[in-house]
Amino acid sequence: MTRIGPAGLGCWLVKTARPPEIVAPGWRPGEERELTRCLRASYRVGLMRPGQPVLLWLSGRDRPGVHATGKLAAEVGEDERGPVAVVRLRLLPAPLPRADLLADPVARGAEVLRMPAGSNPSYLTPAEHAAVLALLPGDR
User: Fold this and answer.
1) Which end of the chain is more exposed for a tag (fewer CB within 10 A), N or C?
2) How many domains does the chain have?
3) What's the CATH code of the domain at 70?
């Protein structure tokens, strides 16, 4: 796992193996939802602050990529499984496919692409985050 600090953080990336329609039944493109995501206990949890940008990443073979954008909605909490983050996310009209990120000269360096089995949270550097935002449709 790469060690990052505040200056190297563009946004957090929280991963899910379940598609958005299963994570939040009835979630429609353009609609915001507040979700709770499990995190791995690590130094990264201590860097997470309300208001920081977050992307929802769907892992696996079926439509991998960025599916929603948003922000951390609260301080990181704890439940019986460990640290959890409450995120406020807007579902994209269409996912930004993993293949599009791999084709981008900056975004292809993202940790989630280099180490797909890494744990939550992952992150993008400021340059990677800017590259991803540039690839998103205008109505994000």
Assistant:
1) N
2) 1
3) 3.10.590.10
